[in-house]
Amino acid sequence: MSFLQVSGLAKRYGRSAVFEEVGFTIEKGEFVCIVGHSGCGKTTILNILAGLDSASDGTVVMDNREVAGPSLDRGVVFQGHALMPWLSVMSNIAFAVKSRWPEWNRIQVQVHCQKFIDLVGLTGAEHKKPSQLSGGMKQRVGIARAFAIKPKMLLLDEPFGALDALTRGVIQDELLKICAATKQTVFMITHDVDEAILLADRIMLMSAGPDARIAEIVDNTLDKPRDRHTMHHDKQFYRLRNHLVDFLVNRARPLISPDITGKIVNLEPLRRQHEA
User: Fold this and answer.
1) 175 contacts 9 by C-beta, under 8 angstroms
2) Is the Cβ–Cβ distance between 96 and 48 less than 8 Å?
3) Are 238 and 193 in contact (CB under 8 A)?
4) What order of strands is seen across the sheet that includes strand 31-35?
5) pTM of the model
6) What are the backbone dihedrals phi and psi of residue 99, each rounded to the nearest 5 degrees, phi first?
7) Contacts of 99 (CB under 8 A, 6+ apart)
8) Cβ neighbours for 13, distance < 8 A, ≥ 6 positions apart
9) Are 131 and 111 in contact (CB under 8 A)?
10) Which distant-in-sequence residues (6+ apart) come within 8 Å of 102 by Cβ?
């Protein structure tokens, strides 16, 4: 039996279904990315996996137990850092650690937190408040907090989406190192095809909503460990990237489609650019 099993998942609001018949499995230690256009229900699926939302139909079973609510067995990192502004870096992480191990004394908590502060490269920033940190540093705190509770599964909802390209790349590299060291199981939402190729073992492609489905699951055939500076020299990289972009541009949705704001968007220029 797979570590995570999702079967017949659906989310409906009245007669309208965001997605239907979503099913997939994730093995222990596997890094899976899900890619799709806005509105197809990716974040809703992640929230259901986290126990923060309920499905209209279907089941989620993790480690042989059905997911029926939030649990410290699942760590979540959102696009917004969600730090408590009145607490320091150390205290933000300690808050989660104390919830996980309430019997630990102050020294045990501090030593454990320091390990993960060091792991994400924030040594020396332990006593700074969120207002004193850059956007990238705040996201590192969120990642450290999620890893510090030693969850069985890590759920990432576009955690780098609001960061500049340079900072994003640095934190992606840190995440790769941490996951390699801890053998962490990860489910991650991203809109960035290159990010998915760098990080994921498998990439799930969702069709457009409403009534979205997982249209295809693509194995990442690039050898590990991967390096952002060299992976584009691999012939497999462009074959894989072109396949993902082709899905998003040509197969995931119609040429004329409403975007998330309801504005009608013509995708034909993007298709022509891709074909060129």
Assistant:
1) no
2) no
3) no
4) 74-77, 153-157, 185-189, 31-35, 202-206, 214-219
5) 0.85
6) -70, -35
7) 72, 149
8) none
9) no
10) none
Query: Which of 257, 127, 185, 245 lies closest to 5, judged by CA?
Result: 185
| Residuewise pLDDT in 10s, the chain (276 residues) | 899 999 999 999 888 899 999 999 999 999 999 998 888 899 999 999 999 999 999 999 999 999 988 998 999 988 777 899 999 999 999 999 999 999 999 999 999 999 999 988 899 999 999 999 988 899 889 989 998 999 999 999 988 877 788 888 888 888 888 888 888 999 999 988 999 999 999 999 999 878 899 999 999 999 888 888 888 888 889 999 999 999 988 887 644 444 433 333 444 444 444 444
Residue 252 near residue 215 (C-beta atoms within 8 A): yes
The tokens for 194 are 């290159």
